[in-house]
Amino acid sequence: MSLKSESHAGVSVLAAERRAQILTEQVRTLYHQAPSAILGSNVIVPLLLSAAVFWNTVPKQLLLVWLALICATAAVRVAVVWAYRRARPNAIAAACWRRRYMLGTLLSGSLWGAAGVLFFVPGAPEQQVILGLVLGGLCTSSVAAHGVHLPTFYAFSLPTMLPYAARSLVEFDKTYFTIAVLALVYLIAMCLFARNFNRALIESWRLRFENIELVAELTVKKEEAERANVAKSRFLAAASHDLRQPLHALSLLASALTGKVQHPETRQVVEEINLSVESLESLFNALLDISKLDAGVVAVERTDHAVQGLFEKLQREYAAEAHTKGLRLRLMPSRMVLYSDPTLIERILRNLISNAMRYTDAGGVVVGCRRRGENVRIEVWDSGPGIAPSQQREVFQEYYQIGNPERDRRKGLGLGLAIVDRLARLLGHTIELRSVVGRGSVIAVTLPRSNRTPAVPPVAVRRTEAGIDLTGACVVVVDDEPAVLSAMGAILRDWSCRPILADSFEAALAQLPPSGPPPDAIIADYRLRAEQTGVQAIERIQSTWNARIPAAIVTGDTAPDRLRDAQDSGYRLLHKPVRPAALRALLCDLIRK
After folding, report:
1. Which of 104, 242, 483, 506 has the greatest number of C-beta atoms within 10 Å?
2. What is the pLDDT of residues 406-444, one digit of tens each?
3. Per-residue confidence at 15, pLDDT binned at 50, 70, 90?
4. CA proximity to 392, closest of 358, 361, 364, 432
5. How far is CA 469 from CA 257, 394, 487, 495, 572, in A?
6. For residues 380 and 373, what is the distance between their CA atoms, to the nearest angstrom?
7. Does 69 have pLDDT greater than 60?
8. Is 394 exposed, middle or buried (0-12, 13-18, 19+ CB in 10 A)?
9. DSSP secondary structure string, 280-297?
10. CA separation for the pair 577, 277 (Å, rounded)
11. Looking only at Cα atoms, what is the longest distance across the chain?
12. In angstroms, how far is the first alpha carbon of the chain from the final one?
């Protein structure tokens, strides 16, 4: 079968399904409105007409027989309606129930048509006008009751009006001729009105069914997208964990090797290894920022703080990079005081400045601060290539990069602006991007302004690492990655520590005599073998000595649920890969406490 034939077959099937849906809805509506239609056309109107108009002009026996037939028809139709409501038929049986309803409607219309002939009284045009008005009224009410299905409307209206018009015509009288013409014109008008009503109703049903299908399809697509996003997050978390482990070991081993190498050429190779490790660490840290935001473990602490101190810090840190690229970097002096989280604002500005410098090859980057009423607007300008209007929304999406089809790792992962956007939404700040291709871009962050004088931060007393003697310190390391254990052992021995290396708390306790003193510190990976966690390992070791031994979690996990669990444990938390300097600072702080 050709593709064209398959397409036509698919369209035919869809059209058949739509017709079945509409037929089911038509039948449901007919039976829903049936009680009022039957009561009016088969009970109330016949009784009133017989008593008020024809009781003294039509033979009573004929009138009573007609009334009996009308009432019997009503009883049969009510029984059919009752059976339909009890059966609750599906779409397959809709055609059968439609025929039953049409038959009852045809019987009622035929009996009314018979009344137009049997109750015709020559020489009494006023009675014929009344009869015509009644029949016309029944046709009008049939538009509402039966217009949902045109064959049913015709089955009632045509037998009702046509015999009356024909009987009036055979009198060959001008008055009756006029009555007949008016009856036919009115019938035609009602048929046209019923047709338009039917078309509008069917179109509304068609649109409703299409909307239902679209909503169902969108729901399925949304669920598929959510499942794909969860699968992506799980994959990235698993890949990140598996890659962070050897990178963490490599970082520690490279640091341990640096102090042992004396040959200049070999030292140069080790320095290149360290630079590559640092580059990889920056990429992993960007992934970690996204994972933390997904996990909801980023706490917001708003304070009043001056923007000038932050600008001076960023100017010092990025000056060397700007000089290396031959760019001008200027952060304009400002007296503005912000009310926001200083750490997260610094993270936003770091990402914006790094992004601007990464894509700017000539010219420079300018960071300024403007007052906007009760708000402050921090703007980062660059003279880079600019961003086309069609891409200005996409650049805030994860992993989206412009002008990097080869995925050069020096240009990052495409997460910088995505992190900026998420942090801004977390803080309730707005981000605005304006750009002209070939001239540059400006990204602005609008945040609340404070009228208060920021508190002066206490002068930090810097403690050197040399002030903490780690000689002989017993440090328990629990990690199920052999390379990490080996690297941790090497770096701890370089610091003159006594490492206890184990892949589980049972293995750690086997190396620690219970009668001896407790270890000085515990460093554990969060995810261990056999569904164990680093938190459980720390608590089991602490319970052995019934002491609160200083401990920290060092993890390569970026899965949101695990990040939340590790954060909620209350222990210090570092993320692999950890630079040796940060690890030593952590260890010194733990032992000091």
Report:
1. 104
2. 445 555 556 778 888 888 888 889 999 998 888 899 999
3. confident
4. 432
5. 22, 52, 21, 9, 21
6. 20
7. yes
8. middle
9. HHHHHHHHHHHHHHHHT-
10. 9
11. 133
12. 79
User: Is 115 in a helix, a strand, or coil?
Assistant: helix
Backbone angles phi, psi at 533, to 5 degrees: -125, 160
Tell me the C-alpha to C-alpha distance, in Å, between residue 554 and each of 9, 191, 235, 476, 576.
61, 81, 21, 13, 6
Q: For residues 138 and 108, is the Cβ–Cβ distance under 8 A?
A: no
CB of 517 closer than 8 Å to CB of 542 = no
Separation of alpha carbons 390 and 58, rounded Å: 83
pLDDT of residue 14: 63
Other C-beta atoms closer than 10 Å to the C-beta of 498 total: 15
**Torsion of Cα atoms, 503 then 505 then 506 then 511, to 10°:** 80
Residue with tokens 């290894």: 273
The count of C-alpha atoms lying within 13 angstroms of the C-alpha of 80, restricted to the half-sphere facing its C-beta, is 22
Angle at 303 between CA 301 and CA 307, to 5 degrees: 120
Q: 500: which strand partners?
A: 476
Beta-carbon contacts of 106 under 8 Å, excluding residues fewer than 6 positions away, are 155, 156, 159
pTM to 2 decimals?
Answer: 0.48
